[in-house]
């Protein structure tokens, strides 16, 4: 009881409040896969995706300064749109695919919502990473989980012209995701000189959001995909902690190794 009283009396920072809202979002997404919420308009994939974009805008402008948040949005949205446009029209680097009318309106062959989704995923992966190349890998880990479901006959948000190697998705798609992500992360770094540094809050959100995808895979009938996604998200999270040795030592209460005297 005292712990709860201390929680409500504590003076939360703007960052802590924004991450608490983000964690509430992961609960909402988890509920969307469970009856009686599953299949309702409020808990639909469209609603969850729109809320994710709104969460991204709120979160980025609450935790980054106005200039930095705006630069990230402009760079990530424009670069991802260019890559998507190239991908849909040429098949490079993702593979041959096309969007359905489910994501209308569109600018040319690319739905306007898609660059916003890239921005949202890119921001949260960046906040959970110590390096931009790691953030790009986290982007791929997310796509490994949701792309087979989103392109399936049940949701049919986009279609692949030929059956791919990974649950119907071509392996080239994941290379494309890494390349596109790394491109806008690199340009963002050149424009801002901002070095990314992960926070425990962001890492927990990444893992919870990953588990949401696992639940979604299970609810869609993809048990093997769910297992693969669980392994990918768990290993990815462990790697993040291992890259930053000080973080996991603090969490486990392990003291830093003694510096040899010489």
Description:
This protein is 67% helix and 4% strand. With 262 residues, the chain is mainly alpha-helical. The strands form 2 sheets. It has a two-stranded antiparallel sheet. The chain is globular, with a radius of gyration of 19 Å.
Estimate what percentage of residues fall within beta strands: under 5%
Lateral arrangement of strands in the main beta sheet: 1-4
Q: Write the H/E string, N to C.
A: HHHHEEEHHEHHHH
Low-confidence stretches: 3-8
- Mean of residue pLDDT? 90
Q: How much helix, percentage-wise, in residues?
A: 55-70%
- Euclidean distance between termini CA atoms: 52 Å
Number of strands: 4
| Total of helices | 10
Q: Output the structural class.
A: mainly alpha
Instruction: Give the overall shape.
Output: globular
Q: Let me know the largest β-sheet.
A: 2 strands, antiparallel
Gyration radius, in Å: 19 Å
Concise description?
By secondary structure, this protein is mainly alpha-helical. It has helices at residues 2-9, 14-31, 45-63, 66-90, 113-127, 132-150, 171-192, 200-219, 223-243, 245-252; strands spanning 97-99, 106-107, 110-111, 158-160.
What is the strand and helix layout of this fold?
Blueprint: H1 2-9, H2 14-31, H3 45-63, H4 66-90, E1 97-99, E2 106-107, E3 110-111, H5 113-127, H6 132-150, E4 158-160, H7 171-192, H8 200-219, H9 223-243, H10 245-252
Antiparallel strand pairs: 1-4, 2-3
């Amino acid at each position: 009881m005292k712990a709860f009283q201390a929680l409500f009396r504590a003076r939360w920072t703007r960052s802590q409040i924004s991450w608490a809202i983000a964690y509430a979002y992961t609960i909402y997404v988890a509920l969307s896969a469970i009856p009686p919420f599953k299949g309702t308009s409020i808990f639909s994939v469209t609603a969850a995706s729109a809320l994710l974009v709104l969460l991204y805008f709120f979160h980025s402008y609450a935790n980054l300064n106005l200039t930095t948040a705006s630069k990230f949005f402009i760079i990530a949205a424009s670069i991802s749109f260019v890559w998507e446009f190239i991908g849909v029209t040429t098949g490079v680097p993702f593979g041959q695919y096309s969007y359905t009318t489910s994501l209308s309106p569109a600018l040319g062959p690319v739905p306007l919502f898609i660059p916003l989704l890239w921005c949202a995923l890119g921001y949260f992966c960046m906040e959970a990473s110590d390096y931009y190349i790691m953030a790009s890998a986290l982007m791929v880990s997310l796509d490994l989980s949701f792309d087979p479901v989103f392109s399936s006959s049940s949701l049919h948000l986009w279609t692949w012209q030929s059956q791919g190697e990974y649950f119907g998705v071509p392996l080239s798609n994941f290379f494309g995701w890494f390349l596109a992500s790394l491109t806008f992360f690199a340009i963002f770094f050149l424009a801002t000189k901002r070095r990314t540094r992960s926070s425990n809050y962001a890492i927990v959100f990444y893992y919870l959001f990953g588990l949401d995808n696992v639940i979604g895979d299970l609810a869609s009938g993809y048990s093997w995909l769910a297992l693969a996604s669980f392994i990918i998200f768990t290993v990815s999270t462990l790697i993040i902690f291992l890259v930053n040795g000080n973080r996991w030592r603090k969490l486990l209460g392990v003291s830093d190794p003694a510096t040899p005297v010489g």
